[in-house]
Design a protein that fits this description.
41% of the residues lie in helices and 9% in strands. The chain contains 19 helices and 13 strands. The strands form three sheets. Strands 2, 3, 4, 5, 6 and 7 form a six-stranded parallel beta sheet that branches. The protein starts with 19 loop residues before the first helix and ends with a strand.
Length: 483
């Protein structure tokens, strides 16, 4: 059973003479070791790792073998070799006791994770100590969880000990009667901009409070800061012990039966409202969404002058259960495939899931896999439920995301970081017109779906291929090296 762990070095060194496959095997083996005592850890890089992939072993047809086959990782392995300049600067930055950065993170779990990652990087840029981030209550889901409820605080502080100083609370000497909260950050801010804007204030007052960080930090950072982002996302942000144990317990119940697919279906009510799309459940349900959207036009994202049909064909809508079922069949998934559905309660309840359940009877969720009230403490905690989904999805043989989003991007990068596990992104703009064409045979439909997605199944894809990609979603080449 592979689980969270700790490796004993400040940086995850790049392999030199060891073969890539052997290096990755030793990386995962180290990650499964239970002999490491946390008390001994000083500078650590704890790794979140999945259960091993099953591969296409057993009594499968050729089509099924192709479906379960893992992509070629091309020899890429984790590599967090920080420069000598970065490590020299760490001696001073990691001991900072005069300047403090407080960050308030908002949104759902993975939106919060992104902001926490950026908070660490910004504290490094400004050479300030970071107070454990404050999680703003989520008004959509009513989740008032604190950082320590979701994440392992001690592990977070220990893992980043050599990079920034992390403290559990702001010293009393830095409390002031009137605190300025910086909310208006532009997009794509650079380290130079941050220093020019905040260093003088931070040096004078000793305190900087920031809110609204979501996706504001530039995606194109110096190599050392990109590596730091990976270190935070894949090593430091370990879920709290109770969540971690339950998540892996559920993952084992799926894994022990053989390969499985995890799907993040975005069928929640708020998603339909924000995307401006039709639910596919009929006029009654679409009317409910339309009324809420009309009363809260600010919720709608994207272009206002597009029709429902135009939004769908432009790839702006999540795949509904019927479309996901046909997509899976088009990729060659057998009807016996075991499917784990991640995500919140779908709008329309069981009716929303019927088309997928009909084609793939072995459909489960965390709610159907738990026993004896295991999930009861978390039922009103959306972020903790999302964390459980994250763990089970990370260990799946195949992960499919129906509609982008922060969780999809987080798992895309995480699955790449631990060996390029199969990850399929539906090419909605290219494939949906074929869904409408009744003249296409099932055989031809399968051929088209497989061709459209042959190059998007989790193979190494350098972040540098496109500007403004996030290293957390595309860790090659900054955080992974090729043997």
């Amino acid at each position: 059973m592979l689980t969270f762990t700790t490796l004993f070095q400040n940086s995850l060194s790049c392999p030199e003479t060891t073969s890539s496959s052997l290096f990755l095997a030793s990386f995962l083996a180290a990650a499964s070791s239970g002999s490491v005592q946390d008390e001994l850890i000083t500078l650590s890089t704890g790794a979140m790792v999945p259960l091993p992939a099953h591969g296409a072993v057993g009594n499968f047809s050729e089509e099924e073998k192709e479906f379960w086959k893992q992509p070629d990782n091309q020899g890429y392995v984790p590599c967090l070799d920080f420069s000598l300049k970065y490590r020299k600067a760490s001696a001073k930055i990691s001991k900072e006791k005069r300047k403090f950065l407080v960050v308030v993170a908002s949104g759902g779990l993975n939106q919060q994770r992104n902001q926490i990652v950026d908070a660490v990087v910004i504290s490094r840029i400004l050479e300030a100590a970071l107070v454990v981030p404050v999680l703003q209550e989520n008004h959509i889901w009513g989740d008032d969880s604190e950082f320590s409820d979701i994440f392992d605080v001690e592990h977070f502080m220990k893992t980043l000990k050599a990079d920034v100083r992390v403290v559990s609370s702001l010293p009393s000497t830095h409390f002031v009667s009137k605190q300025t909260i910086n909310r208006e950050l532009p997009f794509h801010v650079s380290p130079l901009w941050l220093r020019a804007r905040f260093l003088k204030q931070l040096n004078q007052e000793g305190l900087l409070i920031m809110k609204g960080l979501d996706s504001k930090l530039s995606k194109n950072l110096p190599p050392d800061l990109q590596k730091l982002k990976c270190k935070v996302a894949f090593h430091a942000l370990r879920f709290a012990t109770p969540i971690r144990e339950l998540g892996y317990q559920i993952a084992r119940r799926m894994w022990i039966e053989g390969p499985y697919v995890a799907i993040h279906l975005r069928l929640e009510k708020d998603v339909w409202i924000r995307t401006g799309c039709l639910t596919g459940l009929g006029r009654q349900y679409d009317s409910i969404i339309s009324r809420e959207r009309d009363s809260h036009p600010e919720y709608l994202t994207g272009k206002l002058n597009m029709t429902h049909a135009q939004r769908r064909l432009a790839g702006m809508c999540p795949l509904n259960a019927s479309e996901m079922a046909r997509f899976l069949k088009g990729l060659g998934a057998p009807s016996s495939a075991r499917i784990y559905v991640a995500g919140g309660e779908p709008f329309g309840g069981t009716q929303a899931m019927q088309p997928l359940q009909k084609e793939f009877p072995n459909l489960v969720t965390k709610h159907t896999l738990v026993r004896n009230g295991e999930l009861t403490p978390y039922l009103e905690k959306s972020s903790m439920l999302a964390a459980i989904d994250y763990i089970v999805s990370l260990s799946s043989d195949i992960f499919i995301n129906s509609h982008g989003g922060n969780m999809g991007r987080a798992l895309e990068g995480h699955r790449a970081y631990v060996g390029h596990r199969k990850y399929i992104k539906p090419n909605k703009r290219m494939m949906l017109p074929f869904f409408e064409d009744s003249s296409i045979s099932e055989k031809e439909f399968k051929r088209i779906m497989k061709k459209l997605h042959s190059k998007s199944q989790g193979q190494p894809e350098p972040r540098t291929n496109k500007i403004d990609r996030d290293v957390i979603a595309y860790p090659v080449p900054e955080c992974m090296s090729k043997q």
